[in-house]
Specification:
Elements (H helix, E strand, L loop, with lengths): L2 E3 L8 E3 L2 H17 L10 E4 L6 E5 L3 E10 L5 E6 L16 E3 L3 E6 L5 E3 L3 E6 L11 E7 L1
């Protein structure tokens, strides 16, 4: 079964043959969005694309703005995308800065803050958790983020 991705700018959806293809094209689209079509950091926004599954990612270890973060859950269980105002991964039991987004098995979830971004004072950390209310680290997240 092919997966389809919809673009907010009106481009036609594309069909993808696999989850890996979808992740790769999503990363490329996020980078294009963040840099205006220029690969890499254009001085205004940066892109983090962590292609390997992990439990967390430090997006930025100092104050900044988060424009978008998405995560893919490659496990068979529902997990929760959590975002923390921190320079490093907090301990289990920490309360996320935003209400968590559930991610069903083999699905995506995202936080998007459009043009203005959402400010974080200490840093920007994302994690997947097996519980919604507090951090309970679990593997299986593949993260992409646009930040400054």
């Amino acid at each position: 079964m092919a997966v389809r991705q919809l673009y907010a700018d009106g481009r036609q959806p594309e069909a993808f043959d696999s989850e890996h293809d979808l992740t790769a094209k999503s990363c490329a689209f996020l980078e294009e969005l963040a840099t205006g079509g220029v690969v890499g950091n254009n001085g205004s926004r940066s892109v983090l694309s962590a292609g390997a599954p992990s439990e967390s990612a430090v997006i930025k270890a100092s104050s900044g703005l988060l424009y978008k973060v998405q995560a893919y859950n490659n496990t068979a269980d529902t997990v929760y995308l959590q975002v923390f105002d921190s320079a490093s991964l907090p301990d289990n039991g920490a309360i996320p800065a935003l209400a968590p987004q559930p991610i069903a098995a083999n699905s995506f979830a995202a936080f998007e803050f459009a043009t203005w971004g959402r400010p974080f004072t200490n840093g920007i950390v994302v994690a997947v958790s097996s519980t919604a209310a507090t951090l309970t680290r679990t593997g299986g997240g593949i993260f992409d983020a646009v930040y400054r």
